[in-house]
Design brief:
With about 230 residues, this protein is an alpha/beta fold. The chain is built from eight helices and eleven strands. It has a six-stranded parallel sheet with strand order 3-2-1-4-5-6, with helices on both faces. It has a five-stranded antiparallel sheet with strand order 7-8-11-9-10. The longest helix has 13 residues. The protein is elongated. The chain starts with a strand and ends with a helix.
Length: about 230
């Protein structure tokens, strides 16, 4: 696989190292002279100096091939948007990945059709949510183009799903239980698998169904507080 990475900072350079170790072909673009000199000593001909928002720089780096994936991970969100738009619309690159430095800009990436757009802040928040059960529902993955989501819910002791077989759990159309995590191990449940309190259940669903699904697995906090 051939990847073109715009931005040779910590994210871009580490990404390039990992991909090269995995046997992939990588071209790295970096504008800053000192950073470029350091990268050139390591990556040699695989790094190009220049502003990746400029067409001649992208073409010199090999965007006309085109790359299997274009990754924009500069420290400037506006640059990342421009790089991805040019790669997608002018050079018809099928896959683009963008770094979002300021999570407030994430919606701008989505509105422009730049997906996936990865915000480190959002990823850390999701990791925190995953480790703190009080958060209840955790969105693990949003597939924007396919209009699907994957969520995780912890089964409460008083929930409707606790002690029931998968086939007996009432779910709305457009949702499906795909995995159950129990005692540190996961498995794909069968229709007669029994869901237990404390299980972490993964579901794939159409966006907007979370409010209907959550009460089946996690009773409301208000009810839980009243019981306590």
């Amino acid at each position: 696989m051939y990847l073109l990475i715009a931005g040779g900072g910590k994210v871009g350079s580490n990404l390039a190292r990992g991909l090269i170790r995995g046997g992939h072909e990588v071209t790295l673009i970096e504008q800053r002279s000192q950073t470029f000199d350091r990268l050139e000593a390591e990556f040699e001909h695989q790094v190009h100096r220049g502003d990746a928002t400029e067409l001649f720089v992208l073409e010199r780096a090999g965007i006309n091939r085109p790359p299997d994936v274009v990754v924009a991970v500069t420290g400037d969100d506006e640059d990342n948007i421009v790089i991805c738009q040019v790669a997608k619309e002018k050079y018809e690159c099928a896959r683009i990945v963008a770094r979002v430095n300021n999570p407030r800009n994430l919606q701008h990436f989505k509105l422009l059709g730049i997906q996936p757009a990865v915000s480190a802040t959002d990823l850390i928040l999701r990791l925190i949510e995953h480790e703190v059960p009080e958060y209840g529902l955790v969105q693990l993955l949003a597939l924007e183009e396919e209009r699907l989501e994957i969520i995780e819910l912890e089964v409460g002791k008083e929930s409707a799903a606790a002690g029931r077989r998968v086939s007996d759990v009432v779910l709305p159309d457009g949702s499906l239980i795909i995995s159950v995590l129990r005692d540190g191990a996961g498995f794909v449940p069968k229709a007669d698998s029994v869901i237990q309190a404390g299980d972490q259940v993964l579901l794939i669903l159409d966006p907007g169904l979370e409010a209907e699904i959550t009460p089946q697995f996690a009773p409301s906090r208000a009810a839980a507080g009243a019981d306590g």
